[in-house]
Amino acid sequence: MAELEKIEASDRVYSLNLGPQHPSTHGVLRIVLDLDGEYIIKADPVIGYGHRGHEKMGENRPYKQFLPNTSRMDYLSGMLFNHGFVLAVEKLVGIKVPERAKYIRVIASELNRISSHLLWFGTYLMDLGGFTPFLYAFDDREQILDILDSITGSRLTYSYCRFGGVSRDVDLKFIEMTRAFLKRMEKRWADYDSLVTKNVIFIHRTRDVGVIDRELARQYGVTGPNLRACGVAFDVRRSEPYEVYDRLDFEIPTGTKGDALDRYDVRFKEMQQSCRIIDQALDQLPEGEFLTPKVPQKLGPPKGEVYTAFESARGLTAYYMVSDGSPGPYRCHIRVPSFGNLNALNDVLPGTLVADAISILGSIDVVIPEIDR
Amino acid sequence: MSEGLLGSEWFRLILGLLIVLAFSQLNALFLVWLERKVAGHLQLRPGPMEVGPHGLLQTIADGVKLVGKELILPFKADRKLFFLAPVMVFMPVLVGFLVLPFSRGLIIRDMNVGVLLVFAFSTITVLAILTGGWASNNKYALLGAVRSVAQNVAYEIPLLLAVLSVVLVVHSLSFAKIVEYQKTVWFIFLQPLAGLIYLIAATAETNRAPFDIPEAESELVAGFHTEYSGMGFGLFFLAEYTNMFIVCAVATSLFFGGWNGLFGISLGIPGVFWFLLKTYFLIFVIMWVRWTFPRVRFDQLMNFSWKVMIPLSLANIVITAIVVKII
C-alpha cells in the first residue's frame, strides 16, 4: 500500500532546475526542486559553481598578499572580511593597533555593513516583484560607496585595513560626508518604512513565510540576522567585542518567530543601529597615528594557531590559521555564515510554493561566492 | 458610385482595419516608451535619453532590433503551435478596436453586442498564452501558462460581473449607448464598487504587476514567453501594451464617461481628446501601480478573487438589479 502511494506520488512529481542561470539566485546557485504542481516537496541547493580556491591561495602566499583575496569572498562586505583577516593576523603576530585606526576600522566596517544590507533590501524587494525600492536603495548605497571610495580608492573590494592600522587616514571631508549621509538616512528610514514595511502586499508575502526556529537554526549553525530573527540575541560584536565595540552603545535587534518578516525587520533595524555606531565613533574619534610604523614588510609569526571571529553582514565569520613559522599560513580556513544559512533551506523549503522559495532564498541573504570561495 | 463605395460596409471595414493597425502599433510604441519613462522617473532616474529627444525613438530602435533577431525554436518544441501562439495573442486584440467608441461617430462599427465582443475576444489571449507556454517545451513557460489560465478564469468572472452591473442600468450592450447614458454623471459615481472591481480585475487580466504572476520575472524567468526571441517575443510584448490600451479604453467608456466631459462640461474640447486623455490617464495609473507595489503570491491572488471580488461583485449586481427594478 505504501509502495503504491509512492508510485502515484512520483508520477505527479517533477523536478525543476532553479539556476544556476536564474534572475534571482544571487550569484551562481542552483537549487534542484522536486515539485508537485507548484508545491515544493524537496529542495537541494547545489553549490560550488564559483569555487576559486581562496583558502588554498592563502596557504601558498605571504599573509600580506592574501589580504586582497579576503574582500573577494563576500564581495558585498569586503571591508568586513578585510577587517577580520587583519584582526586574525594581528592576534597571531602580536601587533598593537593605534586607537584612531581602531575607530576608523569600525566606521568603515559599519558603513560597509549598511551598504551590504541596503543591497539586500533592494534585491529582496526585487525578488518579491517590487522593482522601485531596489533603485532607491542603490541610490543610498551609492553615497556609501562614494564615502568609502574617498578613503580607500575603490568601491567594492577595498583592501583598506593593514596589519597595524589602515592604509590611509581619514580627513575632515570624510567626516563631513559621513555625517551628511547619516542625516540623509534618517529621512530615508521613514520613507522605506511607509513604502515597504507597512505595505499590505509585502506583509502578506513575508509573514509566516520560511520560518527558521531556534532549534533548526542551532542544527544548521545559522548565524547573523537570520539567527537574531528567531529571538537569539547573538552578535559577535557584543559577545566577544573586538576593536572598540565595547565602548559604543548599540542595541541588538531581535525578532520573535524567525519568519521572513522578522528577518527583514532585524536587518532594517540593524542598519539604523549601524548608523548609531558610526555617529558615536565619529564623536569619539581620537587624534593620533592611523598605522603602526614598526610592522615589518615580511611577517614572521611564531608557530601556533589563531582563531578570530567577527560579525560580517551575514553573521559569524571566522578566520582560522595555523602558522608553522613561515611568512604564510600553513593552513587557512574561513568559516562563512552563508553556508549554514543556505543549507537550512533543505528543511525550510519543502511544503512552500515556488514563489515563496524565491522569497525565502532572498530573505536569508546569501552571497554564493562566499560559500564557494 | 463613389458615394456608394465610401458608404459601403467593406470600405469602412478595410479603412478601419488599416487605421487600427497603424494606431495599435504607434500606441504600443508610445506606451513602451511611456512605461520606461514613468518607471524611470518613479525610480529617481531619467529613463531612456539617448535615441531621439528624451528617448522618444528608443522603442523604434528596439523594434528594429527585434525584427532583425533570429527566431529560435527550442529543442523538441511543437513547431506549429510555437509560431502560432504570438499571432494568436495579437489578432484578437485588434478586433477589440472595432467597437471602441473614440468619439460620437468615431466608432468603426457600433454593434449592439459591442461590450460582449471585446471581452469574448480578449479571452482568446489566454488560449494563446497557454499554447505558447505549452509548445515551448520549458517548465518555466509551462508553469507561467498554467498560472495564466487559472488567473484569467478567476478574474474574468468579477470583471464581467462588474461590467454587467453597468449593462443592467443602461439596458444595452452597445458602447455608444452606454457612453451616451453618462452624459451628466459617470458610472464611476453611480457604480463605484463595480468600477473598482473592474480596474483591479483588468490589471490582473492584462498580467500587470502586482498581478504579473504568469511572467513573474524573479520566479519564472519570463513565464510563458521565456523561450521566445525576436519578433515572437515582440508580438507578445505588443499585445500586452495594446491589451492595456483596450482595457483602459473600455474602462473609460464604461465608467469614466467615454467622450463626455466631467458632469457634462466638455469645455468645447472634442470628445476624442477627452476619451484619449482619460484612457492614457488610466494607463498611467496602472503603470504607477506596477512600479510601486511588490507582487502578490499566486494563492493569495486566487483567494482574493474567489473570496472577495466575486462575492462583492455578485452582491453589487443584486443590489443594482433591485434598484433598477424599483426605479
Key descriptive features of the protein:
heterodimer; A: 373 residues; alpha+beta; Cytochrome-c3 Hydrogenase, chain B; three-stranded antiparallel beta sheet; 16 helices; 8 strands; 51% helix; 13% strand; globular; disordered N terminus; B: 327 residues; mainly alpha; 13 helices; 69% helix
Task: Walk me through the topology.
The complex is a heterodimer of chains A (373) and B (327).
Chain A (H helix, E strand, L loop, with lengths): L1 H11 E6 L11 E7 L2 E8 L7 H6 L3 H8 L7 H16 L5 H29 L4 H21 L8 E2 L2 E2 L5 H26 L2 H7 L7 H7 L4 H4 L7 H4 L20 H25 L19 E9 L2 E9 L7 E5 L1 H7 L1 H4 L5 H10 L4 H5 L1
Antiparallel strand pairs in A: 1-2, 2-3, 4-5, 6-7, 7-8
Chain B lengths: L1 H6 L1 H34 L15 H10 L11 H18 L17 H22 L3 H32 L4 H7 L5 H4 L1 H14 L11 H4 L9 H26 L15 H20 L7 H29 L1
Helix pairs in contact in B: 2-3, 2-11, 3-11, 4-5, 4-11, 5-6, 6-9, 6-13, 9-11, 9-13, 11-12
